Fold:
Amino acid sequence: MIRSNTAVLKQCRETTALNPVPSASCWSTRNACAQWRWRGHNELVSLKRFRARFRRRVHYRVTRAGVLFVLALALTGAVAFFSGNNLLFLVFSAMAALLLVSGFLSRLVLAGLEIELLLPEHVAARMSTSARVRLRNLKRLTPSFSIELAGRPDSSGETPSILTAPVYFPLVPGHATIETAINVVFPRRGRHRENLFVLSTRFPFGFLRKTTTVTLRRETFVYPALEPHPGMEVLLDAITGEIDTQSRGAGHDFYRIRPYEPRDSARHVDWKSTAHTGALQVREFTRDQEAIVDVFFDRHAAPGHREFFENLIERCAFLVWNLADRETPIYFRSQRFSFFFPNDGEIYSILRFLSLVEPLMALGGDQDSSELPIDDSTLQIVFSAQPRDFEHGGWTGARIVGPGG
Structure:
């Protein structure tokens, strides 16, 4: 059939040289050849994908049971050879076949498996996060038995695995998907693109432990660690108390009833509560304008202060996260970034910036206008690896958090 199509195409070329318009038979033959080539290309791609899954590099490790079985096999073979006993030769052959079948079945069990990791939208570093993993068996009929999924550090060994504990799958039916819950821990902030996992099995007899490495390429933004550092909880309580103090004022919304103080106006005396308690009581109202926390994160850091810079990032992330949890308005600023919570969006925008921020080279000189306080009435907090640059730069009333807290 292919030879006849080639002959027709040759005839079509000769006819086209004399007549620029090809005949209908030429067009049909060309379409048939094109469809045949496309079908062959798809089949070749599918075959390559299957071979890639089947030929995934597998590592072998002989277990203790395997060592004992090999010793028993060698002993049986030696006795059968020196004694010439046919029964021992049969036993030796059966044991050798059992060992070969064990290796083939374990290799077949690991073939055709795919992993899918389902992570939540928001993940913080060094915090145990609930996730889900899907193990998919691409084989149509052959099930996979006794599969263990574990994590693996990266090639350099510096970054540990995100999977905290191995996951065991006793059975994965053919052409089926098993989903289970896991806990993952990302070691550091930033953009994570690649995660390594190990699939292993000792099926069917436990003589060999076969493992294969699976690489999951998925971009995940990990926020800085939100755990408290020394002194940050004290700072958070102080800021919350100051906000609570500033929230009391001459507004219209009732706040509380408290004992009378000399600076209070007589028109705020609550006579009913005074008569009930026997002491002067006054009504207190909230301010119409909420207190705003002005947070400035300085990206300038001297060479060799990378650890200090990471420490400041985590302190800043802890503070803004807990202030946002208390529904406190935050005006967050840094070099080339500004965000007003909650008007501009959710607090996750600030955490995402802190997850990707990199230090700038420390330069001397005057501060830029964007690095000055927006208003003297706001609560000002500065995070900087060089606190002295802000002590005399317009932030006289600010709380400055340096590398040491």
The first helix runs from residue 2 to 18. The CA atoms of residues 145 and 171 lie 5 Å apart.
